[in-house]
Amino acid sequence: MGMIEIRHLKTLAALRDAGSLVEAAERIHLTQSALSHQIKDLEERLNCSLFIRKTRPICFTSAGQRLLNLADELLPMVRSAERDIMRLAGGETGRLNICIECHSCFDWLMPTIDHFRQHWPEVELDLSTGFSFLPLPALARGDLDLVITSDPEERTGIHYVPLFSYESILVMGRQHRLVAKRHIQPQDLAQETLITYPVEQDRLDVFTRFLDPAGVEPGEIRTSELTVMIMQLVASGRGVSALPNWAAHEYLQREYISARPLGEKGLWCTLYAAMREDQKDADFMIDFLNTAREVTFRNLNGIRSA
């Protein structure tokens, strides 16, 4: 057996991208103990350490960095070969009509579609938003093939695949009174203007999982379809808004706004891909989901494995 295996490269790449053993183990579907054992086994084979323990973010040694460079070069080639074999074995044609129930998902969905289209040119792609109709019944009827949603419903013949988890945070102007709080309680919003996307309240986590259980209603509700417009209103002191942490990251980095967790432990949500049971094993569907995970974990800040 050779000293270095593909699984080792995948493990090191996950460790670098995740920044911790716990998160890396979740991403590659191992226990933390199994991941630690795999790394220790590789270090014994190579007779050198690959990263410095108890550093955060993880600091790799020269040997570890060399293997990461190899992983960055080799793993995309392996993935491309696997994709080609899938196409040869299962056929290249199909239809993928996608619907999203998430305004801010365009940030990662469009790069995913662009990447997917390069490798599956014969698959017919279409994209729509589910803000003006109910997409899950349309999926069950066969009008759609894939729905991106954070609100799964138990339906016969529908299969859900978790993509990633994210934190919904409250964003506010830098001089807002709530900046003084460590975290936001539901009653803090009773006198606030809450800016949301223009969808029903029962499809927004800030209502269903935060305000409604506490019996609290915001002082006023205002809507906007564009994330950038919401950020402008928030920064101007026109209200506050609950948004995915990745959607707010750029604005927080630029110190354009401030943000606080919703609740003492934060409000964590999971984004799912919904599809019909009869399509979940289609090669192009599997590859689309794998591509979506790769793109999101490479480009979105603050997300976790679901």
From TrEMBL:
Keyword check for Protease: no
Superkingdom: Bacteria
Locations listed in the record: Cytoplasm
Similarity field: Belongs to the LysR transcriptional regulatory family.
Organism from which the protein derives: Marinobacterium sediminicola
PROSITE patterns: HTH_LYSR
Record InterPro entries: LysR_HTH_N, LysR_subst-bd, MetR_PBP2, WH-like_DNA-bd_sf, WH_DNA-bd_sf
Coiled-coil regions listed in the entry: none
Parts of the chain that traverse the membrane: none
HTH lysR-type domain: residues covered: 4-61
Keywords: Activator, Amino-acid biosynthesis, Cytoplasm, DNA-binding, Methionine biosynthesis, Repressor, Transcription, Transcription regulation
Protein name as it appears in the record: HTH-type transcriptional regulator MetR
